[in-house]
Write a structure and sequence with these properties.
The chain is mainly α and 162 residues long. It contains seven helices and no strands.
């Protein structure tokens, strides 16, 4: 006798369902983009923490001052730590807050992911390149491979939805 509310397979074998056949490809691409967006936001948060803990501003601000001495028309900002970390934390919070929109496939989020991903790939490569050039580990280089991978994942996921 079956208990009320129990499905037919309880106590027996679970029917096999192939997830790739049960979910339409468009829904798979949409879900993939949503998770790629969240992964990108998390990678950026990790990268910000890496930069903060390894003294990024101690390298960035003097470099900007030297560039401005040679190219005074170039509008490169210098930062104090509180302003810099607050701005980046707000940016990461905004990216995470857009997670539900990304999971729903809001077209403007998909489009925004393209330049954001490209810039973050360049950012990660810049840290790695600077480390190779200076022959020492520069601030932010430890998290750069993760940033590049998450950015590439978000870029490819976004391109699949266009």
């Amino acid at each position: 006798m079956r208990a009320a509310g129990r499905s037919d397979w309880v106590g027996g074998s679970v029917p096999h369902v192939n997830p790739s056949q049960s979910i339409p490809p468009a829904a798979q691409a949409l879900a993939q983009f949503g998770w790629a967006w969240v992964a990108l936001a998390a990678a950026i948060a990790l990268h910000v923490a890496d930069e903060a803990l390894t003294g990024f501003l101690d390298v960035y601000n003097p470099a900007v001052r030297a560039i401005r001495a040679r190219l005074p028309w170039l509008p490169l900002p210098t930062f104090t730590f509180p302003v810099w970390i607050a701005g980046l934390a707000a940016g990461v919070a905004l990216l995470l807050a857009l997670g539900p929109a990304a999971h729903h496939g809001a077209r403007w989020v998909v489009v925004a992911a393209l330049p954001l991903s490209a810039v973050m790939i360049g950012n990660g490569l810049g840290h790695i390149g600077a480390s190779a050039y200076k022959r020492r580990l520069m601030p932010g280089v430890a998290s750069s491979p993760i940033l590049i991978a998450a950015s590439a994942y978000a870029l490819v996921s976004a391109l699949r939805l266009l």
